[in-house]
Every structure is written in structure tokens, then in C-alpha cells.
Design a protein that fits this description.
By secondary structure, the chain is of the alpha+beta class. It folds into 2 domains: 248 residues, no CATH class; 154 residues, no CATH class. It is 27% helix and 18% strand. Strand 10 and strand 11 form a beta hairpin. The protein is globular.
Length: 446
């Protein structure tokens, strides 16, 4: 059994804090020596993966882009060992990721277009006051150090409803990580014999540990830098709430099951989080509240997608045991998802008010290409792997097919949801490296 070096792993890698307030401060490095001094100053504020009995009021996690590591003065031998997709940055991967049209990099926020968002400081807090206090401490440290500039700040926070802007409960499915010592819930890991589940090998997410192929993932030298680190995807996604509601309402007028069922078919869960695979006919609050059951399914008994459509959002993001995939293949593409909503909710029945709202979407993985990029490009943006032709993910797909884009809802007869329009637009993002505490100290020491 793998034993993780929890005191040297940043906490958000292995656990979702579920703290309802968040802030993201992006820094540009101008003087490497001063930036290293700043790093040394704030490392004690980083939440580690060690277990706690009481949640902290607030804390931070840190990540650096390739340009940030270069600006910090990391030796060329280390820089060259990072994978090409990380070195080139997210904007260079736009076509592959479906970041085209309104989501293309030329429309992103400035710091992401220019790649000046070198350092990402992620604040997690119990409430807005605790967030403001931690934010103040970080900015004071930046001012003391000098040589580093704040280029943009993003505030996030859980909505009063406890759901995301489209109205769905979220955050049920996260991979169980071998060696984390956190309780494993059925469905969180990999399918095993006799209907059991096992945790995913830690090397799928954290450098320095064996992965599902019993190999060590590639890591930048020296070991002090790479070990316990993870690659972080940061994407600011604007949600067109009025457009989503309008499209759903219009399609539901033609769908025999009504709007609530159609909304569930798009995602694969009812709005309260009840999985369609376990409860295809209705919401089940008791099932949602039971962590031993609310994720314990594998699509194996639903090959045609009659319960949960093959093209639904959750089935695309994690096909589990559904054909044409096998568990071993799926396990190599798992993602740790982190993030939070931003912006005020749009009242029910209201037209678009022009306000910016959406989700800060983040993933953690050992390979950007094999995990995040594969899932986005192959599973979300096309239907071919699922034998669905041009169908795309109804929420996050680019909706750029030659014909009117659609989603197929299996049935007798099937129902075609569409034509789809883009309801999630990319506002900016970057690839980051989240070092272990050992890696942060290495960088601070220069």
C-alpha cells in the first residue's frame, strides 16, 4: 500500500476543503530574488495534506506557470524536463481543447493572453471576512517583498442554493487516492472484483508515486522539486444561465418526460444530485445524502444509455465500466476536480442581466495531455469514442459541428436535444505546476 508524504503535499491535491469562500490572486514575477523571498514568507500559510480535526478558517495553496518558473530563475535542465503542453501553455492548446470562437484566447482576460499570470495564490476560507483577512496578509507579504505585482484577482463563493448556476448539485464524484488515508466511498475509485471498489494509484495525480501502470510518472529534476507535485488546470468558465434555461425549456416542450427529467438526462444526475443510473424515475434525497450509495454505480447494466444517456455530462467525464471502455482505460484518464462558482445567481425566470457568472474550474493530475486534455478533447468535444457521431457534451462542448449540434437521449424512439448553442464560454486560463511543500522550499531557496 502506498504511503503518501502528507506533510509535503499541498492539501487541495488530496481533499476538497468545501470551504465556501475563495479568492485567486495572480502574480507577475519581475525580480526573481524578491519573488523567492516572497515564496519563503508565505509557505507557512499553505494548507498541507495532513489530517485535521477542525477545519481552518482560511489558508492558501500555491502554483506556478511555466513562465513563472522561468521568471523565478529555475535552471534550464529543470525547465526543459517539463512536458511540452505545460511549457507552451493553455492558449497554445486552444484548438485541441475546443477553445474557439467566443472562447478563443484572443477574447481571454489580458493576463492569460500575455501569460503574465505567473503565480496563482488560491485562498480558501470559511466566510468572506476570513477571506478578506487572508487576502490582506498575502498582499502585505507581496508589498514587503517587492519585485512581484498583482495582475488580477478573482473572487469565488458557494451559492446560497448550494448548487452551481445551472441549478445542479455538484462535487459527488472524486477519485479515491491510494495512501491518502481519507475514507473511500463506493464508486470513487476503480472497479474491483465482486462489485468492490479500490482507490486509484497515487501516481495518476501526484508525482513521485507509482501509477496504474506501476510506473513513476515523468517529473522535472531534481527530486526535491518534482516529488509530491501535481499539474493544475485553471479555467474561468462563464455560464450563459438564461440561454441554458431557454434552450432546456424549449426542448422540454417536445420531450415526453418533461423538463426535470430532460435536465437530468443532460447531466446524468437529477438536479439534487440523484444519479440516474440508480434512480431513473425520480429524485431521491435519501440516496443523495448517503455517501455509501450516491456514487456507487458503473453504467455496466445500462449499455444503451436508456437510464443514463451515454452522451450525458457525467458519463462522458467518467465512463466507468460502460462500453466501449474498460475500467483500466478509464482509470488512466481520471481527474481530481476542484473549483467554485463566481458571480451572483440569476433569479429564476429572469432574462440575461449581462453580469459575469460561472465557475472556476480546476483539475489536478500527473499528466496534462493524458488526463485533462484527453478528457476535454476526446470525451467532451466529440461523440466518436462513444459511437455518437458529432454529438458533444451538452454543457461544455464547443458546439461547432457542420450540421446543427445535438445530444442524443436514447429511448424508443430516441429524443434529439438541440440544436445546441454554447452555454459555457472560456474567459481565460493557464496550466500550472503545484509543487509539494518540498518543491516550494526548493524554489524559495533558489
Amino acid at each position: 500500500m502506498t504511503e503518501l508524504d502528507l506533510p509535503n503535499i499541498q492539501g487541495f491535491v488530496v481533499r476538497g476543503y468545501r470551504l465556501p469562500a475563495a479568492g485567486y490572486i495572480f502574480l507577475r514575477i519581475e525580480e526573481p530574488a524578491r519573488a523567492r523571498a516572497l515564496l519563503a514568507d508565505v509557505i507557512p500559510q499553505v494548507i498541507t495534506a495532513e489530517h485535521w480535526d477542525v477545519k481552518p478558517d482560511s489558508g492558501i495553496n500555491l502554483a506556478l506557470s511555466y513562465e513563472g518558473l522561468r521568471a523565478l530563475g529555475l535552471p534550464e535542465a529543470s525547465l526543459a524536463a517539463f512536458p511540452a503542453e505545460f511549457r507552451n501553455g493553455m492558449a497554445s492548446r486552444a484548438e485541441l481543447l475546443g477553445d474557439i470562437g467566443e472562447s478563443a484566447p484572443e477574447h481571454w482576460e489580458d493576463c492569460f493572453r500575455t501569460r503574465e499570470a505567473h503565480v496563482l495564490v488560491m485562498i480558501s476560507a470559511s466566510d468572506p471576512d476570513a477571506l478578506a483577512e487572508r487576502d490582506r496578509r498575502i498582499r502585505e507579504a507581496v508589498a514587503r517583498a517587492g519585485g512581484v505585482t498583482v495582475v488580477v484577482t478573482q473572487i469565488g463563493g458557494a451559492l446560497p442554493s448550494g448548487r452551481e448556476h445551472f441549478g445542479y448539485a455538484d462535487g459527488f464524484s472524486q477519485p479515491a487516492i491510494e495512501g491518502s488515508r481519507f475514507p473511500d466511498h463506493p464508486g470513487a475509485g476503480a472497479p474491483a472484483e465482486h462489485g468492490r471498489w479500490r482507490p486509484i494509484k497515487a501516481g495518476e495525480f501526484i508525482l513521485g508515486y507509482r501509477d496504474e501502470q506501476d510506473a513513476l510518472p515523468a517529473a522535472p529534476p531534481p527530486d526535491e522539486l518534482g516529488r509530491n507535485g501535481s499539474y493544475l488546470v485553471y479555467r474561468k468558465l462563464r455560464q450563459d444561465v438564461a440561454g441554458f434555461r431557454r434552450g432546456l425549456r424549449q426542448a422540454a416542450a417536445l420531450y415526453p418526460g418533461g423538463e426535470d427529467l430532460l435536465a437530468a438526462k443532460l447531466v446524468g444526475r437529477w438536479r439534487d444530485g440523484t444519479p440516474l443510473d440508480l434512480s431513473p424515475g425520480r429524485e431521491n434525497p435519501g440516496l443523495v445524502a448517503d455517501r455509501s450509495r450516491n456514487n456507487a454505480f458503473d453504467f455496466g447494466r445500462d449499455p444503451e444509455g436508456l437510464r443514463c444517456p451515454i452522451g450525458s455530462h457525467i458519463r462522458r467525464m467518467n465512463p466507468r465500466l460502460s462500453m466501449p471502455f474498460e475500467g483500466k482505460l478509464v482509470n488512466r484518464h481520471r481527474l481530481i476536480r476542484r473549483g467554485i462558482t463566481y458571480g451572483d445567481p440569476l433569479p429564476e425566470g429572469a432574462e440575461d442581466d449581462g453580469q459575469d457568472r460561472g465557475v472556476i474550474f480546476m483539475t489536478l493530475q500527473a499528466s496534462l495531455a493524458r488526463q485533462f486534455e484527453f478528457v476535454q478533447a476526446q470525451w467532451a468535444n466529440t461523440g466518436n469514442p462513444f459511437r455518437l457521431g458529432d454529438d458533444q457534451d451538452p454543457l461544455i462542448g464547443p458546439q461547432d459541428t457542420e450540421g446543427p449540434p445535438k445530444m442524443t437521449v436514447p429511448g424508443r424512439p430516441p429524443f434529439f436535444y438541440g440544436p445546441l448553442s454554447r452555454v459555457v464560454t472560456m474567459r481565460g486560463g493557464e496550466y500550472y505546476f503545484a509543487p509539494g511543500i518540498n518543491g516550494l522550499r526548493y524554489l524559495a531557496a533558489g
